[in-house]
User: Fold this.
Amino acid sequence: MNTWNKLAELQPRVIDILIRTLNKKRLAHAYLFEGSRGTGKKKVALQLAKSFFCENIQEAEPCQTCSSCRRIESGNHPDVHIISPEGQSIKKHQIEHLQKEFAYRGVESIKKVYIVEDADKMTASAANSILKFLEEPNGATLAILMTEQGKNILPTIQSRSQLLSFAPLARDPFIHLIVNEGISKTNAHLLASLTTSFEQVKVFVEDDWIAQARSVVIQLMEELYDRPSQLLFTIQEKWLGTFKEKAQQEIGLDMLLLWFRDLLFAKVGNLDTISFIDQVDLLKKQALQSSQDKISNHMAAVLTAKKQLQANVNPQLVMEKLMLSIQEG
Assistant:
C-alpha cells in the first residue's frame, strides 16, 4: 500500500508539490501528469484521490482505513472514474459519459475524481468535449489526465491543467521494469544505459534489434583488440547492415561509448553499473591492455565520429576512420 513518503522515493519533486498543495487545501481542479511509462503516474493519481476523499486525513496523508480509502485501493469507489483507450483511442462517447456523470451528485459525497489514462490518445472530438469540464471547474471535482506524450495534448487542455512532469526512473527501477516486460537482463542493462524512455525501449527491442546490435558491438570490440585485420570486413558486413538508419548509427556509437566506459570501470574495479553485464571477463582482459588515458582517448574519438555522422559524413567512412584512430592511439 502506497504512502506519500513511499511515493516520494520515486518522484520527490512531484510529491513535494502535491503534499504542500494538500496541506494548504489548494488543489487545482485539473492536473496533467506527464512522464514515461513506469514513473508512478497512476500510483500518484490514486493516492491523490485517497487524500481527496479520505474521511480521516492527517495533514496530507490518507488514513488508508476509512471506507473511501479502502474502496479506492480495491478499485471500486463509485465516485472515482477511470477512463482508458478503447482500442487505439479514447472516443467521444466515453467523454460524453463522463459529462453525464458530472451532472450528478456524487454517490457518497459531492466529490468526484476522474482519471484519464493515455490522455494523448483522445480523439479530437473527445479532447474538445473534455474542455467543457476544464473550462467550468467544479470545486468538488478533480480531474487527473495522464500521458507519456505531453506534446500531443491540446494546448487548450494544457493551459487549463496544472502540469506535473514525472522524472525518468532511476537506473535500477528502470531495469526492473524492463525485465518485467520479458526483456533479458543482458539487454535490459544496456537499454537502461541508452535511454530512460520506455517507448524508446519498445522501438529498440522490435524484431530483436537491440540483441543483434549488441552482438555486433561486442564482435567489433573483440576484433579491435584481438583480430584487427577483420575490422573492415565486420564494418562492411555486419555494422552497416545492422545500423542502417542515421538514428541507429548514432545509437551504435553510443554503444561503443558505453563499452569504453565499462572498460574504465573494469580498470578501477567498479563493475556494479556496467552496461555489458555478461562480458566481465572480456572487459577485464581488455582493460589490462589499455591505460585509462588511452581509453579516454578512444571515447573522445567516438565523440568525434558522432559529430562527423551528424555532419552527414558517409557512415562507412566514419566507422573506418574511427577504428583507425583507435588503433593508432
User: Anything to note?
Assistant: The chain is about 60% helix and 10% strand. The longest strand covers residues 141-147.
